[in-house]
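FYI - complex with zinc ion, inputs then prediction.
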Amino acid sequence: MHIDCGPVASHGSRPDFLEQFQPFARSARLLRTPFASGNHSMSLAVTADILRTLHRLHQQLADLKDRLAAGPRQLLARGKLLELSEAARTAIQDNIKKEKVSADQKQLQLKSDEAKILNLDSKLNACKTNREYQTLREQIAAFRMATKVLEDEILEALERIDAVKKTLPAAESEVASIKKQLADTRSQIAGETATLEAEVARISGDLICAEGELPADSLESYRRVAKSKGADSLASVEGESCGGCFQQITGNMVAELKMGKIIACRSCGRLLYLAK
Ligand SMILES: [Zn+2]
């Protein structure tokens, strides 16, 4: 990646904070020359401003990365909703199928029983004894009873199918609506992601520029803290407390900060800078 940390005049598109930062940055470069050594008041202003800028850039990066991570989480949640709505629709469809199979089986049974009744009816006239006749009549009556029960059961099954079928359109439109929301969210996130990634690249470049202004002897300890803590790697000193963990810092530490030294909070490890 090409990082342009050149003079202010050539950065028409740079954000305001870098405009403000550059004069201090130039001073920081001067401070590392023999001519400017020992100028503590300038050193303080420069160090605090560099750290403040670094802190802001880290916070901006953390915020951008949070927003980037939110997209996939949103898609995952909508995907789950879609799965649930599809499962609800499938359950309705399965229920309809199951009831239809059961009703079809009962229909077949009914036809078979009706055929048996017809068959038995046809034998009635051929009966030779009264007892034979009575037995046939009893068998026919039993089959008629069974067919009556089957007819009722088939009717109930058809009514259940109708009732369940009525819930299907709502379930289907729910699936279609969530699918559309998912597609909309996906394209919206794709657009936002491109913008956010461009911002991440820009702020990362600014961060590299700002880091380049740190005194060389503190760069390594800064990088170590920044790598492990990110946006929590720095904190302003509010009164005599660390603005990150709110623990009090010693008067000696405040004095060191005023001398432009870069020191870490003993409690949370954040690099401290004096508030404006
Ligand atoms: Zn702290």
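The first strand starts at residue 234 and ends at 238. Residues 12-214 form a domain with the Helix Hairpins fold (CATH 1.10.287.1490).
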